[in-house]
Amino acid sequence: MRVTESSYVFANSQHLRELERLQKIEEVFDPASRRRILATGLTAGWRCLEVGAGAGSIMRWIADIVGENGSVVAVDINTEFLTDLQPSNVEVIKEDIRYLQLEKHSFDLIHARFVLIHISDFRVALSQMLSLLKPGGWIVLEEPDFSAARAIVGNPEALKSVHRVNQAIVQMFANKGLDYALGVKLPAICQRLKLQNLSVEHDTPLSNGGFGMATVMKMSAIQLAEKYIATGQATDDDIEQYCQFADDPTTWAIYHGTVGVVAAS
Ligand SMILES: C[S@@+](CC[C@H](N)C(=O)[O-])C[C@H]1O[C@@H](n2cnc3c(N)ncnc32)[C@H](O)[C@@H]1O
């Protein structure tokens, strides 16, 4: 892999902790991703690209559907969670999507979830993906919208802390030249790129503590605590309160929105 500058905020995470976080993301978000991917007509024989494959659940699920006459290429800057023996129709490539060298116009489907938000020149990554898509091939993009984040029910002090941590998350992305609300911009970006058959969903689940998204965001907060504090928007105590809030089943919040875009080239 060529050595490139990475803006990925989880780049220096501890292995097991990051694996657990990625697996929790899969548990929470795979059902909606599978539904969106199936809407493209995914079937046996397709050649697919999974961008930023993480811990690999979507890659393996697609491999199962496309079967032995199809194939999946999984690309990630970090393939340490993809080292297990993979199905024979899967190829794992350690590379930055912006520099991936593969045959142009060779994929029926390209999927990326929570990847573009981590790339400051995401337009380069997107145009690279589109150049790899066959004419009429499908792209499924799923990116967060942190502008939707808000704490709704909890004790007043905790609500203030959660608000400050949300501000810190926004600031951390902004400081790295990343767009914390990239998700909501994607539909218009895809339109300008003349993608066809665009369908758009904006999920903003209202979540209580102790489950799903609350747990994912608590795991992220533990890993990124120093980065949140460095923004000057939240303190150590705010992060502790945020984690307690995210563990408490009587609290309610929107942790972030997710925009899913399905389109054809
Ligand atoms: C938040 S994780 C999401 C993982 C997986 N897509 C999921 O949703 O379960 C982001 C993933 O994108 C990868 N990534 C970040 N920047 C990348 C880049 N420029 N090229 C390829 N992969 C990248 C990270 O290593 C990580 O595995």
Structure commentary:
By secondary structure, this protein is an alpha/beta fold. It has one domain: 3-Layer(aba) Sandwich (Rossmann fold), CATH 3.40.50.150. It has seven helices and ten strands. Strands 3-2-1-4-5-10-7 form a seven-stranded mixed sheet, sandwiched between helices. The protein starts with 14 loop residues before the first helix and ends with a strand. The mean pLDDT is 96. The structure holds S-adenosylmethionine. The site of S-adenosylmethionine has 18 residues, from helix 1 and strand 2.
What is the mean predicted local confidence, pLDDT?
Answer: 96
**Count of individual domains:** 1
Bound molecules: S-adenosylmethionine
Strand content: 15-25%
Shape: globular
Supply the CATH superfamily name: Vaccinia Virus protein VP39
Instruction: Output the strand order for the largest sheet.
Output: 3-2-1-4-5-10-7
Number of helical stretches of at least 4 residues: 7
Largest sheet, if any? 7 strands, mixed
Q: At CATH's second level, what is the architecture? A: 3-Layer(aba) Sandwich
Terminal CA distance: 28 Å
Low-confidence stretches: none
Concise synopsis of the structure shown:
The chain has 265 residues and is α/β, with parallel strands linked by helices. It has helices spanning 15-38, 57-66, 122-132, 156-175, 182-192, 212-230, 236-247; strands spanning 47-51, 71-76, 90-94, 107-113, 133-145, 150-153, 196-203, 206-208, 252-254, 257-264. 43% of the residues are buried.
